[in-house]
């Protein structure tokens, strides 16, 4: 093989990861958390119009890549999730593909795949690849974990209106909330009243005081409505963008919190159920740092 042929082969092998992730020439790439020593994240738009992120080691090697996201904010939330989950070696799952190559997925606590590695010739090489990703992510995490959680959830909730998919007669923003939590303390309606009662009672639009309201609690907390289950119906009714926004919010909550619970408080209802008027909504869970966090809004059901 000539030196020219060898050089071309090496160049093509260097470009291969970009082809695998759908990157094309001329795509605008935005580098985040840049550092020659620590590595960096890159966000880019693929030829399919979706947004991706990849994690590069300090030598420029592509060591983790994402699936496609409809919106750029989805890729940003994915990066925040890597910072939360990527420092834990237990969150990586090494697998073998049909070609006999080994790779690994970084998996969130809710089971969703956050990122996937390139292929390795052996399982031991893939396991060493996991160790490399963990070290690089540790170098990029320059804020407390719960700060990363706050940023991810606030970003996903920004501009999302609960009433868009849930029939409210008025649009209220979805706000991030957080509070202290004792180790092994259960997340209950009484805890929500204790931690957020003063905040809610000061809201002029709330049917306060919250302590006198009925409450409906559930571990079925996802915000995406049934209308989103049929893409054609959602598009016909003009809900496509709202469905994507709520899916990103659900992903941010599910990837960054555990033991998530939803609570609806209202002055109309009974034990275990709520109806009508201004209903207070809390969707909260436990952060990696052991604190209580989530989102809060008001919805009007009549």
Model description:
- The chain is 34% helix and 26% strand.
- The protein has 302 residues and is an alpha+beta fold.
- It has two domains: 3-142, PH-domain like (Roll), CATH 2.30.29.80; 148-301, Nuclease A inhibitor-like (Nuia), CATH 3.40.1460.
- The strands form four sheets. Strands 8-14-13-10-9 form a five-stranded antiparallel beta sheet. Strands 1-2-3-4 form a four-stranded antiparallel beta sheet, with helices on one face.
- Strand 5 (92-96) and strand 6 (102-107) form a beta hairpin.
- The longest helix is centred in the first third of the chain and has 18 residues, at 3-20.
Short characterization:
The protein has 302 residues and is α+β, with helices and mostly antiparallel strands. The protein is built from 8 helices and 14 strands.
How is the largest sheet built, in terms of strand order?
8-14-13-10-9
Distance, first to last CA: 76 Å
Which residues sit in consecutive blocks of at least 5 with pLDDT less than 50?
1-37
Identify the overall geometry: globular
CATH class of the largest domain: Alpha Beta
Tally of individual domains: 2
Helix share, percent: 25-40%
User: What is the third-level CATH name, the topology of the largest domain?
Assistant: Nuia
Task: List how many beta strands DSSP finds.
Answer: 14
CA radius of gyration: 22 Å
- Main sheet record: 5 strands, antiparallel
CATH superfamily of the largest domain: Nuclease A inhibitor-like
Write down the overall mean pLDDT.
81
Strand content: 25-35%
Which structural category fits the helices and strands? alpha+beta
**Annotated CATH architecture of the largest domain:** 3-Layer(aba) Sandwich
- Tell me the number of helical segments per DSSP (H or I, 4 or more residues long): 8
SSE pattern: HEEEEHEEEHHHEHEHHEEEEE
